[in-house]
Design goal:
Distance between the termini: 142 Å
Structural class: mainly alpha
Shape: elongated
Number of strands: 0
Order of helices and strands: HHH
Strand content: under 5%
Number of helices: 3
Largest sheet: none
Helix content: over 70%
Length: about 150
């Protein structure tokens, strides 16, 4: 006959131990000065009733906020200056581009005119070659008739 499994075999005992250990650890973390959870413990001075502590914390947070504001303002000024410098550089580049386009415009016009002249000369040359070929054929015909 088989025996029912023990707590250890089922793993039940280990889980309970772990839970207890976790609870003890949390209790120790929550009460670093002692391990008791009773309401009779003295929790120390009420920090919220101490105006000096409150004023000190308020001053620290105000100082921290002022530092952050000053850092942000400084960063804004740096970025504004950087933006202004970039805009100046962009305007200079645009002026240079406009000047280059103006300088190149006559060159482009000259290129267009040269292409037109080349096309006209090619047409004239074709006509001249055709006329020369026609004249050469006519002279060959005339010379061959003379030989006959």
């Amino acid at each position: 006959m088989s025996k029912p499994p023990t707590e250890r075999e089922r793993g039940d005992g280990d889980d309970k131990k772990k839970k207890k250990v976790a609870i003890v650890k949390v209790a120790r973390k929550a009460h670093p000065g002692g391990s008791s959870n009773s309401d009779d413990d003295d929790l120390g001075v009420d920090s919220f009733g101490n105006s000096d502590i409150i004023q000190d914390l308020t001053d620290k947070f105000a100082l921290f906020g002022e530092r952050k504001v000053a850092e942000a303002e400084c960063l804004v000024e740096e970025k504004a200056e950087e933006n202004e410098n970039l805009q100046k550089a962009l305007r200079k580049e645009e002026l240079i581009l406009v000047g280059l386009k103006a300088a190149l415009a006559p060159e482009e016009e000259k290129k267009k005119e040269a292409k037109i002249k080349i096309a006209e000369l090619e047409v004239k040359m074709s006509k001249s070659i055709s006329e020369a070929a026609a004249q050469a054929m006519e002279e060959f015909r005339v010379s061959s008739k003379m030989k006959d």
